[in-house]
Amino acid sequence: METILFSPSSNPILNPKSIFSKSPSLPRLNKPIISSVLKKPIQSTHASLSSQNKDWLSFLHHGLAAAAISIAINFCPLPTTTGPAIASEFDVLNEGPPTESYVVDDAGVLSRVTKNDLKRMLSDLESRKNLHVNFITVRKLTSKADAFEYADSVLEKWYPTVEEGNNKGIVVLVTTQKEGAITGGPAFIEAVGEKVLDATVSENLPVLATEEKYNEAMISTANRLVAAIDGLPDPGGPTFKENKRESNFKSKEETEEKRGQFSLVVGGLLVIAFVVPMAQYYAYVSRK
Predict the structure, then answer these.
(1) Is 75 strand, coil or helix?
(2) What is this structure's pTM?
(3) How far apart are CA 86 and CA 80, in angstroms?
(4) Among 10, 24, 27, 220, which one is least packed by beta carbons within 10 Å?
């Protein structure tokens, strides 16, 4: 009985196999513990490197995007509302005749003094002669062949009927093309006269515009038109100044003359160079 009760194989406490195989609280040592411990640092290292690569690529993409935006802004600036608007002949046609003045300076070349002087002169002319004249400046023409066609278009657009445009006059100055034109209704053309109109268009506007004296071109044109309407002597207009440059080259006659003088001088020097030493030598030998 004692042998059976105290047998090591029958006592679960003293049997080591029963302890490791049946006890639920102790872990099984089928795999080495160190392998499970080393897997986590390796996985975290790969994850960290992958995260760093993603962060670097994201930073590179953002940098390239910022550089592209900067280049686009520098080379393709966005339009601003504070800068001056580009002159256009279509704006003049669509806006209609000015209500507070007689001047439409769409090219932006006239001074405030010129605008005030034109307003004063043309207002006085309208009050006395019932003739309304508008002065227009544009930078360039893209829709019409020349200033005359554009002036006719403005007259027809602003005053579509014969009654409205009968006593109206239009003066156009194109700054880029350096040309001008004058048109108007029958009453305006008759009051000014064909001779003065042709002279003003061929003298005052193109000559002074070529010299970029736009203010003087408009004032002199207004003075000439007002004088013709009032029956006063024609003040005339400017003329082209021929700037002849003096040439630095000599003419053929001057060249031949200079060549002859040079030959004489050279010949005289050669004679002196040979004759004087020979004369000195002869005088020295004769003394002996």
Answers:
(1) helix
(2) 0.56
(3) 12
(4) 24
Span 98-110, pLDDT tens digits: 988 899 999 999 9
Per-residue model confidence as pLDDT tens digits over 228-261: 999 999 999 887 664 444 444 445 556 666 666 6
- Alpha-carbon distance 65 to 120, whole Å? 59
The strands making up 179-184's β-sheet, listed across from edge to edge, are 103-105, 132-138, 168-174, 179-184
Residue among 196, 208, 221 nearest 125 (CA): 221
Burial class (CB in 10 A: 0-12, 13-18, 19+), 218: buried
155: its two tokens: 């007259």
Full set of structural domains in the chain with CATH: 89-229 (3.10.310.50)
pLDDT band at 5 (very low <50, low <70, confident <90, very high): very low
- DSSP category for residue 246: P
Is the four-CA dihedral 176, 110, 219, 95 of positive or negative sign? positive
Go through the chain and tell me how many residues it has: 288
Question: pLDDT value at position 268?
Answer: 73
Instruction: Take residue 203 and report the two structure tokens written for it.
Output: 């003298």
Please give the torsion angle defined by the CA atoms of residues 73, 77, 83 and 84, in that order, rounded to the nearest 10 degrees: 180
Compute the average pLDDT of residues 189-193: 97
